[in-house]
Write a structure and sequence with these properties.
single chain, mainly alpha, 86% helix
Length: 110
């Protein structure tokens, strides 16, 4: 069962790392490349440790195979969603300030 869960959890990790990578890419523009690289490496090491450790624990029969293989995705996914929400709240991607000047001109013409 460990191998079955592993075959599905590792490809799903691509989606989880997108959740982490997108906000870190945005943050790296603000804080420099070292910040994004350091955080990305940290998330990868945590994922790797959970994956290897979970596999070992499941092979010994200490924890179920599902939790062994999916706990890394769940943990990193929650962290990725948290970072994504924080990044979306702090950053305005589209500036609508140009409409402040345009709307009064349109009202004067009407």
């Amino acid at each position: 069962m460990v191998e079955v869960h592993k075959k599905y959890s590792i490809p799903f990790a691509c989606l989880v790392f997108i959740l982490v990578g997108a906000p870190l890419g945005i943050m790296s523009r603000k804080g420099g490349m070292a910040v994004g690289l350091g955080l990305s490496l940290g998330f990868f090491i945590i994922y790797w440790a959970f994956l290897i450790g979970g596999e070992e624990l499941a092979d010994r029969g200490l924890i179920p195979a599902f939790w062994a293989m999916w706990s890394a995705n769940i943990l990193i996914g929650i962290a990725g969603i948290y970072i994504l929400v924080r990044s979306a709240r702090e950053t305005t991607f589209i500036s609508w300030r140009w409409t402040e000047k345009l709307i009064p001109k349109m009202l004067r013409k009407a």
